[in-house]
Automatic annotation (TrEMBL):
In the N-terminal section; belongs to the NADH:flavin oxidoreductase/NADH oxidase family. This is NADH oxidase. Pfam families: NAD_binding_8, Oxidored_FMN, Pyr_redox_2. GO terms for molecular function: FMN binding; iron-sulfur cluster binding; metal ion binding; oxidoreductase activity. Residues 5-334 form the NADH:flavin oxidoreductase/NADH oxidase N-terminal domain. Residues 466-607 form the FAD/NAD(P)-binding domain.
């Protein structure tokens, strides 16, 4: 099964066992000074053991003064030993190890202590920055060569040069960013000079048989004067002549709305960048890696079968399920835990410096805890009753089964997956719905007993006396207490997404969070004129950075109006009376949809019955506090570890 995906490939002196690449995704699992930690080694070891063909270790700084904290570094000899432990961990688990050499430029805003090297004089993040000097350019070029030599000593099988995403080499290459007037600016030849010097420095420092990859953007998005795909093709040809073997074709940047393509959320079509990789492969005659929302084995196999690429990046697919490759190769695709492109743990988690020390994953709470959270069999198997078959309850059941317990899921409705399925009813989110359905089937197939149309009651607990009870009853939409909110023209957003009601005519959606905006999207797609009323000064605050960009672009294209700083006062026959910064007005509409949040369902009666029956009692997910799915699912995992 998937013969092309799991066929070997030879690049110079390196043979990879299959065509699956774990890309150099930032994790923030490195130490304060960029040193390799046991956590980072365990993360890579798990993906290597899971069958990945090539692990590319994340963005490794080559220059100490500009290296941000908790980004991997290979800028000093003292770091080689840690890297050797990492390559050993990958090799011992059957994988091959690469590392991406990186010079961050404006990306060092993650760490204000790190020096920011930029191509031109500019003001960025409140700082006035001077252009890097020619002497400093040569220092950085030498750093690339020295870093490459350290990588060889540390046991890496190949290297990757990062020349994308507005980092320093890309900043020189792009005419939309490089406005220098010396030998490093102006013409295409001059703009190519610095990245080519870096490539030559790397190539000269590594053995002839060691492959050199290059990550490159297919073109610049939303950047006036930026790189075209024709320029990229020409640069790739020249890079190939200077020692690059493989082109890792990405897209996106960190200074425009094009950032949405760097870690594309569910709103961006699967494989959106594949045709660019195919064209670059065709016109350069070089080996190419396809990148961009490739998250199923079927999709990856088709790309390879159609000769659109030689390898495929499957990054978040392996964050969600480190055993992705093994399961796909063995034909166990129904057991794969699929990435749903939510970005809540990988991208939002990476950027959330205050609340998350490193990345995580909505589908895989164990990410980053591979070593310390290894699941062990329970000494005494217990019968555990779970109230609610949403994603938190399903995750708890999955982990309980792995530990040898006997979970019984009580689901009031006729399906498993809860609000994840509701969310998956929004336009463009079908794969979220399918992931929830697939997860429910996996838990049932693994041995969980499920009682549909049967809410867990105190009477059942009293009569059947389980050993433990987990309340995962979720949350319910908040009923807005507003004059006129009981009118027939008013309904809940969840009912719209579930197709339980069809509002008439023009619609006002009260609430501009995730649920409100997705309801607005669904209504606009069905042909309704839509306005969203949000009391805060911006809508979509709970979407995460990249999903917000994508959703706002889509709503703008659908002519959905968004009114912010709008306090709703009354719903009457003509519409919604609001007070904005400009004063009081009536937003005329035929129907009103409420999306003002959710509140936890009461589980106190279950708690009381459990205590009387001598059963351990836990509350998880939205039943504890309504919030993002990533937190609810993590709570299901953690609670099941404790039982």
């Amino acid at each position: 099964m998937y013969d092309r995906l799991f066929s070997p490939i030879q690049i110079r002196g390196l043979e990879l066992k299959n065509r699956v690449v774990l890309p150099a995704m930032g994790t923030r699992m490195a130490g304060e000074k960029g040193e390799i930690t046991p956590r980072l080694a365990a993360y890579h070891a798990a993906r290597a053991a899971g069958g990945c063909g090539l692990n590319i270790v994340e963005v490794a700084a080559v220059h100490t003064p500009s290296a941000p904290a908790h980004f991997v570094s290979i800028s000093d000899d003292s770091l080689i030993g840690g890297h050797k432990k990492l390559t050993d961990a990958i090799h011992q688990n059957g994988g091959k190890a690469a590392i991406q050499l990186w010079q961050g430029s404006i990306a060092t805003t993650f760490d204000p202590r790190a020096e920011m090297l930029v191509v031109n004089d500019m003001e960025f993040a409140g700082k006035k920055l001077k252009a890097i000097t020619t002497d400093r350019i040569q220092e950085i070029v030498e750093c690339y060569g020295k870093a490459a030599a350290r990588c060889v000593e540390a046991g890496y099988d190949c290297l990757e040069f990062h020349c994308a995403h507005n980092y320093l080499p890309h900043s020189f290459l792009s005419g939309g960013l490089n406005h220098r007037t010396d030998e490093y600016g102006g013409s295409f030849e001059n703009r190519s000079r610095f990245p080519l010097e870096c490539i030559r420095a790397i190539r000269n420092a590594i053995p002839e048989e060691m492959p050199l990859f290059m990550r490159i953007d297919a073109h610049d998005d939303y950047l006036p004067g930026g790189l075209t795909i024709e320029e990229i093709i020409e640069f790739c040809r020249i890079a190939g002549e200077n020692g690059v073997d493989v082109l890792d074709v990405s897209r996106g940047n960190i200074i425009t709305a094009g950032s949405v393509y760097e870690v594309p959320p569910i709103d961006i079509p699967r494989g959106f960048n594949v045709e660019n990789a195919a064209r670059i492969r065709r016109e350069t005659k070089m080996a190419t890696i396809a990148v961009g929302r490739i998250n199923t084995a079927e999709q990856a196999e088709a790309i390879l079968e159609e000769d659109k690429a030689d390898m495929v990046v499957m990054g978040r697919a392996q964050l969600a399920d480190p055993e992705f490759c093994n399961k796909a190769r063995e034909g166990r695709t129904e057991d794969i835990i699929h990435c749903v492109g939510c970005n809540q743990g990988c991208y939002d988690g990476f950027c959330d410096l205050r609340n998350r020390p490193f990345i995580t994953c909505l589908r895989n709470p164990c990410l980053g805890h591979e070593e310390e959270w290894k699941l062990t069999k329970a000494e005494t198997p217990k019968r555990v009753y779970i109230a609610g078959g949403g994603m938190a309850g399903l995750e708890a059941a999955r982990v309980l089964l792995m530990r040898g317990h006997h979970p019984v899921i009580f689901e009031a409705g006729d399906r498993l997956g809860g609000q994840f399925i509701t969310a998956g009813q929004a336009p463009g989110k079908e794969e979220m719905k399918q992931a929830a359905i697939s997860f429910g089937r996996l838990v049932e197939r693994s041995g969980a007993e499920v009682r549909f149309h049967t809410p867990l009651t105190p009477e059942i607990i009293t009569e059947e006396k389980p050993d433990a009870v987990i309340a995962a009853v979720g949350s319910a939409p908040i009923e807005l207490k507003l004059p006129g909110s009981g009118k027939k023209m008013v309904c809940q957003a969840h009912a719209v997404l579930e197709h339980e009601v069809e509002p008439e005519g023009s619609v006002c959606v009260i609430g501009g969070g995730l649920v409100g905006l997705e309801a607005a999207d669904a209504l606009a797609a069905a042909g309704h004129p839509v306005k969203v009323l949000e009391m805060k000064d911006t809508a979509g605050e709970d979407l995460g950075m990249l999903r917000k960009i994508a959703v706002m672009q889509k709503l703008g294209g659908e002519s959905v109006g968004i009114i912010t700083n709008a306090r709703c006062l009354e719903i009457n026959e003509t519409g919604v009376v609001v007070e904005t910064l400009e004063g009081k007005e009536t937003v005329v509409c035929d129907s009103v949809v409420l999306a003002v949040g959710s509140a936890s369902r009461d589980s106190s009666a279950l708690k009381e019955a459990s205590e009387k029956a001598g059963a351990d009692f836990f509350v998880i997910g939205d039943a504890k506090r309504a919030r993002r799915a990533i937190d609810a699912i993590a709570e299901g995992f953690d609670t099941a570890r404790q039982v």
